[in-house]
Amino acid sequence: MSTQRWGYRYVGPAELRSLVRPGGEGRSMRSPADFTEWAATRPVEEFAEPFTFVVDADGVLRLAPRRSEHVVCAAGEAVLGAGEIRFSEESGKWAVDEVSNQSTGYCPDVSSWPAVAEALDQAGLVRPSGFTHEVVFRRCPACQQLNIVHEGDFVCVFCDEALPPEWNVDRPGRADADTDTTRVRRPHGDS
After folding, report:
1. CB atoms within 10 A of CB 34
2. pTM, entire model
3. CA dihedral 114, 116, 122, 125 (to 10 degrees)
4. Mean pLDDT by groups of 10 residues along the chain of 191 residues
5. Which of 6, 106, 152, 184 is 20 to 30 A from 177 via CA?
């Protein structure tokens, strides 16, 4: 049974999109063997930090080092999910320790979890039942700035207008969707 999936276009800074190069996308994990082979080639130190991930339009997990841009990992294409992910290996079995939808380039909704879960299952990874850290993104209808909603406070940090309860970061038909220079402002002390 096929489920309808929501795709997310890149909404981040144009200068980061310009980093996309043929062959520079994240490594595709179509099977447990793909993940095992990839993990074996990674330096142990890399596993101390989360990796950048996207779920491409075909539902395949792609992985890149943490300091990679999501748009580069996705080869500039739309995604079904994106964020950061941390792995551990125990008794020869790989597991997802942490996974978030933290991507200010794609700003995926928390409802992207089913696509992420399917991609992790395809890669043969033991996973949690949902994002271990959920990020709620909203675009202010008044000033058009991108916001990260903290503690359920749906108020724009730029202009104090109310933010919508539904995801609205990339509205179809928005003239500047492909060239947006979106900023994300976080409360003091957040990184």
Report:
1. 18
2. 0.86
3. -110
4. 68 95 96 96 93 97 94 97 96 94 97 98 97 98 96 97 95 41 35 33
5. 152
